[in-house]
Design a protein that fits this description.
By secondary structure, the protein is an alpha/beta fold. Helices cover about 40% and strands about 20% of the residues. The structure holds zinc ion. The site of zinc ion has 5 residues, from loops.
Length: about 325
C-alpha cells in the first residue's frame, strides 16, 4: 500500500475505549462507538491521504516489464513502441508521482490499462489514465462494481459510481490474450476470491505474473465479502497461482513487497489454510466471533503477517465470516 507503517500504526492503534471517549468529548457525545471506530479507522481516507504524499518507486523486473510501488496496489508496467500497458491504476491523487515514474520508464504514450479488480486502490487512477489515452480492460464484474454505488461493510464505506471515463470499455469473463511490444499478455479471470471480479495478468516471455489482491506479500490480506470474496476462494486462487508459476516466475502481489516468488507465495497459501482450519474448528465448536478472536487462532503467524493494515483481530473476523 505504500504507506509508512509507523505512521499508520500510530494513527490506528488507538484502543476502542479511549477513542470513544475522545470522540465523545470532541462531538458532545454524538458519535456511537461504532461510528467513532469507523471515523478513527477511516481506512479509505487514510490510504488516499497517504498516497498524496507517498513517493512512487519503480523496479525494473525482466524484459520490458517494471513494477511501481507507492500508489495503492502494486502497478505493473509494460513498455515499448506500441505504447505503455499498466496493470492497475493506483490512486488518483498520486498522479504527479505516477506521471514522473512512468516517463522515467520511457517516452511512449500510455495505451492500455488492465484493472485486476474494482477496489479504489487499484482503479481510482482510471479516470486520469483514460484521459491521457488508456483503454481500460477489466472483468465484467469489475465494470459492474465501478458503475454502481458499492458498500464495503468491512471498511464501513460507500463508494460512489465512477465517472464515465473511469469505466472499463472492454470487458472479459473468460481468458483473453493480447500481443503488445513483442510480449504475449494473458488475462485470466479467477473464480470469486478477493472479489468476484479478480483477474491475473501474465507477461509470457518475461515470465512475470501479476496476481492482483489474491496475494498480499508478507501481510494478512483483505477479503471483500461485500462483492463476492471469501477465504476459501482466496485459497483456491492461491493454489491456481502456485500452479501457474515456476521457481523462475516473478510474482507481483497486489500489496506488500512488489517483487515476489513461488516460495513466498506458498508460505502465504499455507498461512491461509492453517488459519482457515483453526477458525473453522472454533466456529464449529460454537464459539462466537468475539470468543474466536479472543482465542487468537492467528497467533503463530502474527509476528510475520500481522504487522500491517489488516491486523490479527480484523483478519480473524474476515476468515470467520467465510467458514
Ligand atoms: Zn483489493
Amino acid at each position: 500500500m505504500g504507506l509508512r507503517r509507523k505512521q499508520l500504526l500510530s494513527r490506528r492503534h488507538f484502543c476502542l475505549c479511549c477513542m470513544s471517549s475522545a470522540a465523545f468529548a470532541a462531538t458532545g457525545g454524538w458519535l456511537t462507538p461504532r461510528q467513532a471506530f469507523a471515523e478513527a479507522r477511516g481506512l479509505v481516507t487514510l490510504i488516499k491521504d497517504s498516497a498524496a504524499s507517498s513517493p512512487v518507486t519503480a523496479y525494473k523486473l525482466r524484459g520490458n516489464v517494471s513494477v511501481l510501488e507507492g500508489s495503492g496496489g502494486n502497478i505493473a508496467v509494460l513498455t515499448g513502441p506500441d505504447g505503455k500497458l499498466l496493470v492497475d491504476g493506483g490512486i488518483g491523487v498520486s498522479r504527479p508521482q505516477l506521471t514522473k515514474a512512468l516517463s522515467g520508464l520511457g517516452p511512449e504514450p500510455l495505451t492500455h490499462l488492465i484493472n485486476t479488480h474494482w477496489h479504489f486502490d487499484h482503479s481510482d487512477g482510471n479516470e486520469w489514465l483514460h484521459s491521457v489515452g488508456a483503454k481500460i480492460i477489466a472483468h465484467e464484474n469489475t465494470r459492474k462494481h465501478l458503475s454502481e454505488i458499492q458498500r464495503v461493510e468491512d471498511w464501513d464505506y460507500n463508494f460512489l459510481p465512477s465517472p464515465a471515463g473511469a469505466i472499463p470499455s472492454e470487458i472479459l469473463s473468460a481468458n483473453r490474450s493480447l500481443k503488445l511490444n513483442g510480449t504475449s499478455i494473458e488475462m485470466k479471470p479467477y473464480k470469486p476470491a478477493h472479489t468476484d471480479g479478480d483477474l491475473s495478468v501474465t507477461f509470457g516471455e518475461a515470465d512475470i505474473l501479476h496476481v492482483g489482491d489474491t496475494y498480499w506479500n508478507g501481510i494478512y490480506p483483505f477479503i471483500d465479502y461485500s462483492t463476492g470474496g471469501s477465504i476459501d476462494g482466496m485459497i483456491i486462487a492461491s493454489d491456481s497461482n502456485l500452479a501457474a508459476a515456476t521457481d523462475n516466475t516473478i510474482i507481483i502481489p497486489g500489496h506488500g513487497k512488489p517483487v515476489s516468488n513461488k516460495s513466498e507465495l506458498k508460505a502465504f497459501r499455507d498461512m491461509l489454510v492453517d488459519i482457515r482450519d483453526k477458525v473453522a474448528a472454533l466456529k464449529k465448536a460454537g464459539r462466537t466471533l468475539e470468543e474466536t478472536v479472543a482465542a487468537k487462532p492467528t497467533a503463530a503467524h502474527d509476528a510475520k503477517w500481522g504487522q500491517f493494515v489488516i491486523d490479527p483481530p480484523f483478519f480473524t473476523k474476515l476468515v470467520y465470516e467465510g467458514v
